[in-house]
Amino acid sequence: MASVGIVGAGLAGLAAGITLQEQGHQATIFEQSCHVGGRVASKEVDGHIVDEGFQIYIDGYPKGLELLDLEALQLRSFAPGAIIHKDDSAQTVGDPLRQLSTLPQTITSNIGTIGDKLKLLRLRYKLSRIDVESIWKQPDSPASDFLFSLGFSERFIENFWRPLFSGITLDPSLSGSANTLQFVFKMLSSSNAVVPANGMREVPAQLAERFEGELKLETPITGVTSNSVKTTTEPHNFDAVIVATAQDSAQKLCNLSPAQSSGWKSCTSIWFAADSAPTNDTYIHLGVETNVNNFAVMSNVSSHYAPDGKATMVATANGTEVTEEQLRADLATWFENQVDEWRTLEVQHIAKAQPQIQPGSNRQLAKKTSNGVILAGDYLADSSINGALESGIAAAALVN
Ligand SMILES: Cc1cc2nc3c(=O)[nH]c(=O)nc-3n(C[C@H](O)[C@H](O)[C@H](O)COP(=O)(O)OP(=O)(O)OC[C@H]3O[C@@H](n4cnc5c(N)ncnc54)[C@H](O)[C@@H]3O)c2cc1C
User: Fold this and answer.
1) Architecture, CATH, for domain 42-77+194-199+264-355
2) What pairing do the DSSP bridges indicate for beta strands 89-94 and 228-231?
């Protein structure tokens, strides 16, 4: 049995802790903030649940199936598909294979040609026949090159792929990995986009509950070696150390060269409260050529997001420059003057939301530095809840 110190109680750190526990090791997690979950967090504002940005869980995430009790999370689903807002029109693009009633609107929507829709079905079919591991092993390229190589029209890429991909991976340029796009599309078309009934915080909270080792919150680590972590007051010795922080923090703690970092993708989310929702649907709404990239009525998806008789909405834009006035003006073209009645619960400018991962980057999942410290985090896998969990599991496997 080894004793292991883990820096960071984000999803990667928690996944590492649980995996080590299952292998019979003794893990201690040190977290600088007052809560577990890192970038996956929620709070209550005037009785409304406000997540850290707009985040969704996908109930087919392979590593979530290994580590989480999905039933206990009381998952609530978004409708499969999306409502696409362009200029003054709103068009529903459903997933007719799962919700037959959306077939007519999906076929007649003018977001792309019939050929585009058939290509979408062909890609969906191809991805249904390969496993996730095989997706990551494919040669990679920028997502936009991949989509053009499949013959999608520019109109369909602009009206569908760009808002969809940028909503989930915060990459409006479509310059990120085509393999990530395929992973996300496979997940979305074979399983459900969901949130836990009581907010995204329930995902890390459940992992923390499963973890039986010591969890020290509000304990920042100031330095590490392969067998010790240093708090502001004292060093703690272990047989192995895992640094499960974001890349920039890991580089500082381990004195690594910052050249390995390729930066962050950012976003702005605004949470609104209202006496009534502007729509009854549970779709994710996507904006084309607007500041608002995506919008959802969270209280339609889970009533727990709002107090009785109220509604909770979230609108998200890429980048941190966009203002509340700009987002409200865009939403007014979708929902007219109802928007004037909405009260702002919180404006979130999230500069460090997801790490930039270049297409073709070596997907290491976890690795040891030259000094023997084990590194974990979404930046070593893919920037998603699944990627962070997978990285934590892989880091645990590097403990001898
Ligand atoms: C706005 C937003 C939207 C997203 N949307 C989605 C989505 O829809 N679906 C999806 O799957 N993923 C989404 N993601 C990505 C997902 O949340 C992350 O990939 C994942 O949470 C990263 O987990 P992690 O453990 O690697 O890192 P983190 O969550 O960053 O955890 C690192 C932890 O280390 C702690 N730490 C850092 N330094 C120290 C130190 N010196 N001492 C002690 N502790 C330290 C931090 O406080 C933090 O708790 C989104 C992320 C954001 C922010």
Assistant:
1) Alpha-Beta Complex (3.90)
2) unpaired
| pLDDT exceeds 90 at position 298 | yes
pLDDT of residue 302 exceeding 60, the answer is yes
Q: Rounded to the nearest whole angstrom, what is the distance from the C-alpha of residue 263 to the centroid of ligand 1?
A: 14
pLDDT tens track for 92-134: 886 756 665 666 566 666 778 889 989 998 999 999 999 999 9
Q: Same CATH fold, 42-77+194-199+264-355 and 3-41+201-261+360-397?
A: no
Closest CA to 368 of 393, 337, 399, 344: 399
Give the residues surrounding ligand 1 with Cβ less than 6 Å away: 7-13, 30-33, 38-40, 52-53, 55-56, 168, 220-221, 244-246, 249, 253, 267, 350, 353-354, 377-378, 383-385, 387-388
CA distance linking residue 247 with residue 378, whole number of Å: 9
Contact 33, 171 (CB under 8 A): no
Structural domain boundaries of the chain? Answer: 3-41+201-261+360-397, 42-77+194-199+264-355, 111-191
- CA dist 1 to 63, 215, 231, 235, 239, Å? 24, 19, 24, 21, 9
Domain 3-41+201-261+360-397, architecture per CATH: 3-Layer(bba) Sandwich (3.50)
Q: Report which of 345, 377, 382, 359 is spatially closest to residue 12, judged by C-alpha positions.
A: 377
